[in-house]
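Researcher: Can you fold this with uridine-diphosphate-N-acetylglucosamine in place?
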Amino acid sequence: MRVVSVVGARPQFIKSAPVSHVLRARGHQEILVHTGQHYDDALSAAFFRELSIPEPDMNLEVGSASHGRQTARMLEGLERIIEDESPDGVIIYGDTNSTLAGALAAAKLHVPVAHVEAGLRSFNRRMPEEINRVLADHISSLLFCPTDTAVENLQKEGITEGVHRVGDTMVDTLHAALDRDGQEGVLSSRGLERREYFLSTVHRAENTDDPDRLRNIVEALDSADMPVLLPMHPRTKKIMASQGLEAKGSLRSIKPVGHMEFIALLANARAMLTDSGGVQKEAYMLGTPCITLRDETEWVETVDAGWNVVVGADREKIEKAMTTFHPSGERADLYGKGKAGDEIVSIIEKEWG
Ligand code: UD1
Ligand code: UDP
């Protein structure tokens, strides 16, 4: 079997690594295409090294641009590659512009598309990711859902064929990245004590592109009663600088960190404050309380389970959650046991092999 895999942004390297490993271990040919949406070493190459992801066979080097321009550049490059390579199918991940471009380029050439992390919905069409995932799902022929909610979301949109609940490939990667022995070293090198600091990431357009929301979040983090470590996405760094916002008080801004270090920091934090999608799940899996800096979440099971609270960008709500949100109790296996990569490849083999 011969497949084209399309990746481009940080979370896609993390989601695709297990599938790439299984594909290659089983002797299939994978043509790994990096769109170049993320290009800083800390957002891209660092993950290939750390997660032993094979070097991309091609990099379209599209770089940063407006949504239309960036997606158009990807489409042009991907169409050419899919035509030249004639794969049995194209695999796409998550909900970024790279996801949409991969789906659209392949579907228009009548090449089957497999969407990993299908069926997620925030029901907020102002999010670029919501547009990307709705469109990608409707033109995919294999839909790999991480949760029952995702399967139900697809059903409600009339998508029932080719839908498989396989769990989440991020669990596979988390198992590989969880270095329990090295965690103490990570904390001491940052001068941190277990459960005596918060970890935060902020990069969603709805927060970075709204000055009031961003200011509220930064001020709430500044005022925490223990250190708040903020590995800063370059998007947020640029916008904070342009608005004269800086990390002060308890807030400590650092460069984005590698995946093993991030997982170690997350596993030991008092709580995670984030607008990331993937990090909400990782916090749940590691038993770290999650305070979600958005108005809604796709990962509703973590909220239902009591381990995630959605507070938006409301300063008072964020501050209250930082002092009062102490979930406890059992955490069910919501996202599978870390075998999603194997399951996905087995299904693809049956369909495309
Ligand atoms: C993208 C995804 C988002 C995902 C996030 C993961 C879309 C629409 N958004 O958001 O869903 O959660 O990736 O991190 O696809 N930049 C750099 N260096 C880089 C990459 C970006 O400095 O290597 C800066 C540029 O100023 C760029 C900005 O970040 O304009 C935004 O980058 P972009 O890839 O457009 O979106 P993200 O915010 O990263
Ligand atoms: N991550 C990381 N280092 C960081 C910040 C995040 O390794 O400094 C990882 C995190 O563990 C998760 C993924 O990046 O697996 C989430 O990506 P991001 O938040 O950029 O995107 P989203 O999930 O919101 O689409």
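Model: Folded with uridine-diphosphate-N-acetylglucosamine in place. The chain has two domains: 2-168+336-352, 182-324.
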